[in-house]
Amino acid sequence: MKTTAKLNNIQVLRAFAAAAVVVFHTGFAFPHLRPFGSFGVDVFFVISGYIMARILDPASGSSSDFFFRRRVLRIVPPYWFFTILLYLAALRVPQLMGSTRANLADLLKSLFFIPFTKDSGLIQPLLFIGWSLNYEMFFYLALAIGLLIYKRRSVWIGAAIVLATMLACMPLAAHSVLAQFYSRDISIEFVLGILSYYLCRAVPAPTARRLRLPALAVCVASALLLIATQAIFPSNVFPFNSSRVLTLGTLSFLLVTAASLLSQADWDTGIPWLVLIGDASYILYLIHPYCEYALDRVLAPRLHWLKRETASGAFAGVTLSILLAVVLHVYCERPTVRVLMRRFGGKRKSTEFATAP
User: Fold this and answer.
1) Mean pLDDT over the full length of the chain
2) Is 354 a domain residue?
3) What distance in Å separates the CA atoms of residue 20 and residue 228, rounded to the nearest whole number?
């Protein structure tokens, strides 16, 4: 498997995951179904483990030099920008901010990825969607420590650090916010992503081509089951439903693995607009709640069809979020990332974004 090229199928999964989360936060549900889409975070975590394993694979043509610095340059600037913007908005119009308050201590904890409990009782930063970034940054830090210990086994050392931290935090979860946050089994999904990469890496190209139709079937079935698990099936359908990683994590693992095998078998996505949404998925993830809130809290009191819970309001919120995210990605995020990587991320050319054929 060529490990230095971007896989457009993975970018499309990013688009799928981001769109699912956007739909979930509208609160809209089809008749006789429950709201669904939070599984997008699980797909993102498995993809993250997969991509980091590709980057750090000693057999690949990529370089692990400046690894942590490049991840910080990729993740932190947009997150800090929108967090500070939200803080300023909370100062100006606190009545529109829900449980978000313009508290300086909360701002600093948010900026430095320190979990804390908000007034809502949830462990979230000011930019509430950023709770998942606390896990992402911890995963990157664990991998960076692995690089310092033993470069050729850095991914597995990082995975061991993640799992050991989760196990160590479990007995302390009732007494510490940090322990409660990092004891959640969702961290295992990064390890599933690593396993997905090495499983695909072990499959020769001729074998991958013979597995095209089964892989396509698994890919479609996994995506549909992720939706059905949340939208249709009662919580008692799965005997292990209390464990997120055993339901959503396992299905996400199958989805990512099947999509990667299809790429290896030369069935890589050639639809540019889907790849573009995948490239813009990080910005979409960060901004979508506030696009939806703007429609719901500012315009919907006068235009009732824009209420988030209605079909028309949900469609408007999703559409606005995607369009704005693509514009911000093309004209702000992409050029900024390239400049930052070129100046501070080492000499290696940035390959942060896929290029559709």
Assistant:
1) 90
2) no
3) 12
- Rounded (10°) angle between helices 281-293 and 272-279: 80
Nearest to 252 by CA among 30, 22, 38: 38
Q: What is the pLDDT of residues 42-90, one digit of tens each?
A: 999 999 999 999 999 987 756 667 899 999 999 999 999 999 999 998 8
Q: Could you tell me if residue 73 is inside a domain? A: yes
Judge whether 175 lies within some domain.
yes
Q: Is residue 97 part of a domain?
A: yes
163-181 residue pLDDT tens: 999 999 999 999 999 999 9
Query: What one-letter code names the amino acid at 346?
Result: G
Q: What are the phi and psi torsion angles at 224 (to 5°)?
A: -70, -40
Residue 277 neighbours by CB distance under 10 Å: 22
The encoded tokens of residue 136 equal: 């992402």
User: Locate tokens 């050029």: which residue?
Assistant: 335
Q: Return the structure tokens found at 263.
A: 């790429």
In 10 A of CB 151, how many CB atoms?
Answer: 12
Structural domain harbouring 199: 8-344
Overall number of domains in the chain: 1
Residue given tokens 């996994």 in the structure block? 222
